[in-house]
Design goal:
Layout lengths: L3 H15 L6 H17 L4 H15 L2 H4 L4 H16 L15 E6 L6 H14 L4 E5 L7 H9 L6 E2 L7 H14 L4 E5 L8 H14 L3 E7 L4 H13 L4 E5 L9 H9 L3 E5 L7 E3 L2 H8 L5 H11 L2 H13 L4 H13 L3 H6 L6 H6 L4 H12 L3 H5 L6 H11 L3 H19 L29
Parallel strand pairs: 1-4, 1-5, 2-3, 2-4, 5-6, 6-7
Antiparallel strand pairs: 7-8
C-alpha cells in the first residue's frame, strides 16, 4: 500500500499529540522533528522537508493553535493542509486540443513503467468516450512493441507499429497519419527510454516532439527510485519541457517520496498514479485525497469513484430495491462480490475507509483467495438453492462442499455471513447505492466496511 510506512510513523506522532490536553512549543517542535525524520526516511527531498517542517512549525507555535481547545488536532490539520499544498493543492487534469487528434507524448527512463502506463492511460481515456491509438516508438528495448501489444490487446486498444527497424520519428509521423485517417481522437506515443539520460535520447525526443506537436508531454517516473525520480524529472523538463507527471509503482512502499517532492521541485503537476500491475490500476492524482490517505483520514471520494466505475447502474438500482424489500439472495451476494473485486485490491480499499487503524492494517493479511472460495461455493449451488438457501440440508451442503473443493464448515460459515449481511442491510433506507450526493456519504458504499468479506 502506498506510503504505508510513512503513514504509520506520522500517525504515531499525531497519536502522541492528541493524547496531550495542552501543547507547549517544545511539544510541537519535538513532533516536527519526528515528522522530519519520517519524511526523510521516505526519501522526500531534503529542501522540501526543511521547508515543509519550517512552515508547519511556524504556524503551529502561534498562540492561536497552542491555546486552542484541541491543539493536537489543529497541528494535524496544519500538516494535512501543508501536505496538500506540497503535492499541488488541486488535481491537474489532462487538456485536449481543439482539433483532434489530441497527442500525448509519453517519456521516461527504461524500466519506469512507461509502456504499461501508456496502455493504462489509453484505457482510462477510452472509458471517457475517446478513441485512443497507441503508437509504438520504442524500437530499442527488446520486445517493447510486443509488450505493449500484449498488454492492451485483451482490451481492444489498437497499436500502430512498424517493427523495430524503422526510425522512431518516421513511425510517429506515419502513426499520426493513420490516426487521422481512421478517426482516432486521442494518440499516445510510447517513446523509447534509456537506462540513463543521454544526448542521443533527448535529440530523438525533440525530433518526435517537432513532428507530433503534442498537446502534453507526460513523464513517467518510478516511485521506488526516490530522489532519482525527482532528478530525472528536472532534467527532462529542462531538455524537452514537461506538462505533467505519472508516478508509477505507487503500490509499493519502498520509499515513495518522489510523489511528495516532484511537484515542489519541478513545478510540474502529478496527473496520474499507477497503483498496480493490472490494466485498470491507474487513477487520477488528487493531492487532498493522497494527503488524507497518508495521515490515516481515509479516502471516501476515491472509494466512491471506484464503486461507481465497478457497479453497473441498472444492477445497482435493482440490488438496492432488493435491499429495501429484504429479498437479497445468494445470486445477488455473488454478484456483489464480483463487483467489489473489480474495485481493486481489498486491503487498499479498506485503507481508504476513515477511522481504520492503519498500523493494525499494515500487519494484517487480507486473504484475496477467501472471496474466490466463496464464489466457488455459491457457483456449486443450484439456482433454487441460491434463491432459497433455507432449503440447504446436510446432504445438499456436503454435495456443494465436494463440488467446490471446500469443506462443509466453510459452506456453513458462508451461509452465516450471508445471513449477517442480510440483517445488516434490512434497515437500509435512503441514501442510494453510492451515497446521498454531496451532503452525505450514506447508502450501501458508506457501509462497505461492515460487509463480511472485508472482515
Amino acid at each position: 500500500m502506498a506510503f504505508e510506512n510513512l503513514g504509520e510513523k506520522l500517525q504515531g506522532v499525531f497519536k502522541k499529540l492528541k493524547g496531550k490536553g495542552k501543547l507547549s512549543e517544545a511539544d510541537v517542535k519535538e513532533a516536527m522533528r519526528e515528522v522530519r525524520l519520517a519524511l526523510l526516511e521516505a526519501d522526500v527531498n531534503f529542501r522540501v522537508v526543511k521547508e515543509f517542517v519550517s512552515g508547519v512549525t511556524e504556524k503551529a507555535v502561534g498562540s492561536e493553535v497552542l491555546e486552542h481547545l484541541h491543539p493536537g488536532q489543529q497541528v494535524i490539520k496544519l500538516v494535512h493542509e501543508e501536505m496538500i499544498s506540497l503535492m499541488g493543492s488541486t488535481q491537474s487534469q489532462l487538456t485536449f486540443s481543439s482539433k483532434p487528434p489530441t497527442v500525448y507524448m509519453m517519456v521516461g527512463l527504461q524500466g519506469a513503467g512507461k509502456t504499461t502506463s501508456s496502455g493504462k492511460l489509453a484505457g482510462l481515456l477510452r472509458k471517457q468516450g475517446k478513441r485512443p491509438l497507441l503508437i509504438a516508438c520504442d524500437v530499442y528495448r527488446p520486445a517493447a512493441i510486443k509488450q505493449l501489444q500484449v498488454f492492451v490487446s485483451p482490451h481492444n486498444i489498437p497499436v500502430f507499429e512498424m517493427g523495430d527497424k524503422e526510425n522512431p520519428v518516421t513511425i510517429a509521423k506515419k502513426g499520426l497519419e493513420f490516426a487521422s485517417e481512421n478517426g482516432h481522437d486521442v494518440v499516445l506515443i510510447d517513446t523509447a527510454g534509456r537506462l540513463q539520460i543521454d544526448e542521443e535520447m533527448m535529440e530523438e525526443l525533440a525530433q518526435i516532439r517537432a513532428i507530433a506537436k503534442p498537446q502534453e508531454i507526460l513523464l513517467v517516473v518510478d516511485a521506488m527510485t526516490g530522489q532519482d525520480a525527482v532528478n530525472v524529472a528536472k532534467i527532462f523538463d529542462e531538455k524537452i519541457g514537461l506538462d505533467g507527471i505519472i508516478v508509477s509503482k505507487l503500490d509499493s512502499d519502498t520509499r515513495g517520496g518522489a510523489s511528495l517532492s516532484v511537484k515542489k521541485v519541478t513545478g510540474k503537476p502529478i496527473k496520474y498514479a499507477s497503483i498496480g500491475e493490472k490494466f485498470d490500476d491507474i487513477e487520477e492524482f488528487h493531492p487532498d485525497r493522497m494527503a488524507s490517505r497518508i495521515l490515516g483520514m481515509g479516502d471516501v471520494l476515491t472509494l466512491i469513484d471506484k464503486a461507481q466505475q465497478a457497479f453497473d447502474e441498472k444492477e445497482a438500482a435493482a440490488l438496492e430495491k432488493k435491499f429495501r424489500e429484504n429479498s437479497l439472495d445468494l445470486e445477488d451476494f455473488l454478484s456483489q462480490m464480483q463487483q467489489i473485486k473489480k474495485m481493486g485490491n481489498i486491503k487498499d480499499l479498506i485503507g481508504m475507509m476513515p477511522g481504520v487503524n492503519q498500523a493494525a492494517l499494515a500487519g494484517a493479511e487480507v486473504d484475496e483467495k477467501a472471496m474466490v472460495h466463496m464464489e466457488a461455493i455459491i457457483q456449486s449451488m443450484t439456482p433454487q438453492e441460491r434463491k432459497t438457501p433455507e432449503i440447504l440440508t446436510g446432504s445438499r451442503k456436503r454435495r456443494i462442499a465436494a463440488g467446490s473443493g471446500r469443506s462443509v464448515p466453510e459452506v456453513n460459515r458462508l451461509l452465516k455471513q450471508f445471513e449477517e449481511m442480510r440483517k445488516m442491510l434490512k434497515g437500509l433506507t435512503g441514501g442510494g447505492m453510492f451515497g446521498g450526493g454531496k451532503k452525505g456519504k450514506k447508502g450501501l458504499m458508506g457501509k462497505l466496511g461492515n460487509l463480511p468479506f472485508f472482515q
